[in-house]
Amino acid sequence: MDTVTGAAQPTQSAQPSVQVQSASPIQPTQPPTIYDVARIAGLSIASVSRVLNGQGNPRADTRQRVLLAVEELGFVPDGAARALSARLKEVIGVVLRRPQGRDASIFADEDENLQFPDMINRGMEIVAQRHGFDLLIRSVDLDEPDAGRQIFALARKSDGLILHDKVLSPEQLDLLSRQVPVVTIAGEPTETTANVHGDNQGGMRDLARHLIFDHSYRVIAYVAGHEGSPDSMIRGEALAQEVTRAGVRLLTGEEWRGGYQAAGGAQAIERLIAAGTELPRAIVCANDQSAIGVLHALALRGISVPGEVAVTGFDDIPVARHLRPQLTSVRQSIQDLGATAFETVYGMIGRSPDSGDNARGRDIALPTRLIRRESCGCDQKSQAQMSIERAA
Amino acid sequence: MDTVTGAAQPTQSAQPSVQVQSASPIQPTQPPTIYDVARIAGLSIASVSRVLNGQGNPRADTRQRVLLAVEELGFVPDGAARALSARLKEVIGVVLRRPQGRDASIFADEDENLQFPDMINRGMEIVAQRHGFDLLIRSVDLDEPDAGRQIFALARKSDGLILHDKVLSPEQLDLLSRQVPVVTIAGEPTETTANVHGDNQGGMRDLARHLIFDHSYRVIAYVAGHEGSPDSMIRGEALAQEVTRAGVRLLTGEEWRGGYQAAGGAQAIERLIAAGTELPRAIVCANDQSAIGVLHALALRGISVPGEVAVTGFDDIPVARHLRPQLTSVRQSIQDLGATAFETVYGMIGRSPDSGDNARGRDIALPTRLIRRESCGCDQKSQAQMSIERAA
DNA sequence: CTGAAAGCGCTTACAG
DNA sequence: CTGAAAGCGCTTACAG
């Protein structure tokens, strides 16, 4: 920090001075300010600002002179000054939770990647760009007691916040969402926040029925996500409901928790096998990432999938189709999740919480769709073959 | 944009007013300002600022009063105001290139994920946090002529920039890097920028020798990354060198380009097979992502890997070990790449380009390591088995 | 040690 | 249509 704050001290006169573009090759060219532009254009800074922001009706001549000067200097307005003055930062803060509980295992030497959240972010980003916004990303470690503070600090650098999953206590969330627009993904809406999620219930119901009726599996386990995840709970409940209705046996509980991660899924299976537990006919995982771990552990034990045990995921991340066997999953349009979340916060900016056309309090569900591949027991090879041949 | 700029107009008196915390449940609680804190603490804003920033030696009493008021109001300083005044935004801009050329294929319905860049970003983020910085992410579509402008705009919202891959012309890069610290990843250093990359040469050399001498493959193809990628070129050249020296045949060229993506890798293989080309004994891919596509295409054709054709990747992204066969690759510590890039820009902030202790012009190489798994023809199953059993 | 004041680089009513 | 001025919410020499 020292070197940086030291450097922050003004080193030159604050008075705008002529920019020497070509003179000093490696000199620290201070970016030009609006004053420089105004001087070169022979106008006031107000006129420059108006031309650049399309306000008022500047004369063609004025426009020209400004544009020329801007071009000559390569002027781009400073973001902080613009934000302070316009009361708009054109930045949305995004908070992810960093996976916790790294254990010593083959998975520990390199952090797992967060394919699902990363793709959500990609979706947000694309829409953000269209509105001239950027995304300020921060992943918080929930073990840190400081996590709440960090999120509040992020909020003051942004016009709105998108929170992946549960990263704040209800009280903190409430406090925050009164000061700044907040949208959660895979959370729950509150009076002052909106939430975006996939249709967990419908997706899991279709998957469960497929396993129960099309494949006639009679013992099914559920590998849950991390504790307190609404997605994981709703998926688990939907599965339980279908299973119960059909008189099928459900295995679930702490020993089946995968925490949404490959390492978690693999370890759960390893522990169960080590404990001599008899495996169920099908293992339904709360997401694809943990299904990857389950597949891995089963393969190492020489247990055939789907022959001996069927395995399914949720999300349909891009690699799902590249696994062997190809992973049956429930597709969410992951990027849409992000895009929708962005559009939602964006719509909340500048609106008072109690105004009419407001997303606050809304729970937005996006459709899901069962994708049958090989790992559930279906054979999709011929079909996939056809599709790739059609494309080629 | 309309609704937002409209909303940006000040709606209340600019004079700081007492915050009514509990009174109006869903009122738009304007975040408190430093003036509010000062009033409640009975001090000047200067004192508040000093306490909060650890400047000077405030009396214990003064400290207490400030801290209490801050706590009471839940005050967090506005980022834009802080940035403007302190001349430090505590933000680093990150630019990725968005993959281009989406084709109609089984890969087209959902964008591919960018596992490699996403993990790099994760590495940057962790270090950034330690310095109190956040990452402002923007992915640019290089097909857009506006791409350069967008990057300059991002620069004015940041204290420094990290560019993945090549996203600017040399001229633009030069211009930019005189105004703001710039570090590239997998690019080339210039007089005013630093670059961070994995040891491509060493990694590829080890891989090539492994294929040539340990496995005795005599015909090897190289699936290149996207055009102009220094990483791809250096890897290709290192491979060519080893192959030539050993008198082995190398297949390469446009028809073997995978563009770093699974879709690209799969399509290249499909086209070659469709054209009746005889496949080489080993296919060396410029990265893991394209190797995934190659594996996929070969599997669909019923071609056994590594039995008939060996396949290797580069990067060792986390899923590499979960593929069937497990992918042989060259590991880079992906997160370290990001962490190093961040530390490097961070060190450049506030330093004039010509000052002494400066990273500018440096090319920082991080070690790589050959990871032998199954897809090259080795059998690692027993070994992997042991390692997971050890962990369990 | 503390406060009053200037200044960071913009935008935007307000006059003219 | 344009310019002078105020103001956004902070930090930081500068006096006292």
Description of the molecule:
Helices cover 42% and strands 14% of the residues of chain A. Chain A is built from 14 helices and twelve strands. The first copy, chain A, has a six-stranded parallel β-sheet with strand order 2-1-3-4-5-11, with helices on both faces. Chain A has a four-stranded parallel β-sheet with strand order 7-6-8-9. The first copy, chain A, has a two-stranded antiparallel ribbon with strand order 10-12. In chain A, β3 (160-164), α8 and β4 (182-185) form a beta-alpha-beta unit. The interface between A and B is large, with 109 and 111 residues. β2 (134-140) of chain A pairs antiparallel with β2 of chain B.
Please count the helical segments of chain A. 14
Structural class of chain A, by secondary structure, is: alpha/beta
Q: What percent of residues of chain A adopt helix (DSSP H or I)?
A: 40-55%
Oligomer: homodimer
SSE order of chain A: HHHHHEHEHEHEEHEHEHEHEEHEEH
Measured distance between first and last alpha carbons of chain A:
55 Å
Report the uncertain regions of chain A.
1-27, 102-110, 382-392
Largest sheet, strands/sense/barrel of chain A: 6 strands, parallel
Largest interface: A-B, 109 and 111 residues
Query: Which overall shape of chain A is indicated by the principal axes computed on the Cα atoms?
Result: elongated
Q: Strand sequence of the main sheet of chain A, in spatial order? A: 2-1-3-4-5-11
Strand fraction of chain A equals: 5-15%
Number of strands of chain A: 12
**Rg of chain A computed from alpha carbons, rounded to a whole number of angstroms:** 27 Å
Q: Average pLDDT of chain A, to the nearest integer?
A: 86
